[in-house]
Design goal:
single chain, alpha/beta, Rossmann fold, binds 6-O-phosphono-beta-D-fructofuranose
């Protein structure tokens, strides 16, 4: 086994709260084991451009509580080409780096897998950093908990104004093609309905549910629309419902507000477990795996599996949502 003396860490794809806490954990663990650690700026794009900097214990001081990522992030089109990956390989080699911790989502891991098949002398391990919670092999992805809390706080505020005006709000939340944010926020904020990509959406059902609620003297209604729902986005769905229920209607798209802000305590602890777990996995000779946390313990899953097998929506939570929202 080649000795691993230099480890690089980078963040890629959409940023998520807790990435900084995780970079800190990777840096401090690597230094603890007497190895050198580097930060790749702007994800794969920075790797291609050899934008790689040495990191020290002090480089990651006072970042545990900050949202975003000090290394910045990008979605690199050039890395999808063999030429781009060759440049990235040459950058890593020129710095003597042979272990890499990739913090990101499915796009990040898919890129890492192709890279490793072409350049097997570089060992990659992945950390699931995305607000979407859509990766198999971990109970939670890094940033999901914070994003959820942001969404719930926003919906609580929307409820205040909705109730004061007797209004119906359609609130669109992120998640790409996964409904975890919508479902959990729906339960936690007491929404009247949720629409998620994983289950078929019936506009007629939504209308009859909202009418039922009105009959039961509800003074406001909130429908959470998960991004990627097959019936459309919050605006198009609101258009289909408008006029068919006796509610003045408004639409709110929460957007990138969901990605920012200080990470929750839960995300910071998760970041520590994942960051430390990733370095220890690399130093033990591990590669091509995602370092998740299941039942509180570090759990390794082949990257291929983490990306291909989407985490399942919990049917028990769906049932709860259905019963409690009436
Ligand atoms: O994957 C995280 C995420 O925030 C998704 O929920 C969303 O679909 C996407 O990224 C938005 O990407 P961008 O920041 O490039 O607009």
């Amino acid at each position: 086994m080649v000795e691993m003396n230099k480890i690089a860490v980078f963040t890629s794809g959409g940023d998520s709260p807790g990435m900084n806490a995780c970079i800190r954990a990777v840096v401090r663990t690597t230094l603890y084991y007497g190895k050198e650690v580097y930060g790749v700026k702007r994800g794969y794009q920075g790797m291609i451009e050899n934008d790689i900097i040495p990191l020290y214990a002090h480089s990651v001081g006072n970042i545990i509580q900050r949202g975003g990522t000090i290394l910045q992030t990008a979605r690199s089109k050039e890395f999808m080409t063999p030429e781009g990956r060759k440049k990235a390989y040459e950058s890593l080699k020129s710095q003597g780096i042979n272990g890499v911790v990739a913090i990101g989502g499915d796009g990040t891991f898919s890129g890492a897998r192709v890279f490793m098949s072409e350049y097997p002398d570089i060992n990659y391990v992945g950390i699931p950093g995305t607000i979407d919670n859509d990766l198999f092999g971990t109970d939670y992805t890094l940033g999901f908990d914070t994003a959820l809390n942001t969404v719930v706080e926003a919906i609580d505020r929307i409820r205040d104004t909705a109730d004061s005006h007797n209004r119906l709000f359609f609130v669109e939340v992120m998640g790409r093609d996964a409904g975890f944010i919508a479902l959990n926020a729906g339960l936690a904020a007491g929404a009247e309905a949720i629409l998620i990509p994983e289950t078929p959406t019936s506009i007629d059902n939504i209308i009859s549910r909202l009418e039922d609620g009105k009959r039961r003297k509800k003074t406001s209604s909130i429908v959470i629309v998960g991004e990627g729902d097959e019936a459309g986005n919050a605006f198009t769905i609101a258009e289909q419902v408008k006029g068919k229920v006796d509610f003045d209607t408004r639409v709110v798209v929460l957007g990138h507000v969901q990605r920012g802000g200080a990470p929750s305590c839960k995300d910071r602890v998760l970041a520590a477990k994942m960051g430390m777990g990733a370095v220890e996995t690399l130093l033990a000779g591990g590669k091509g795996v995602m370092v998740g946390v299941k039942n509180g313990e570090v759990a390794l899953t082949p990257m291929e599996k983490a990306v291909k097998h989407h985490q399942e929506i919990n049917p028990g939570l769906l049932r709860m949502m259905d019963i409690l929202s009436r």
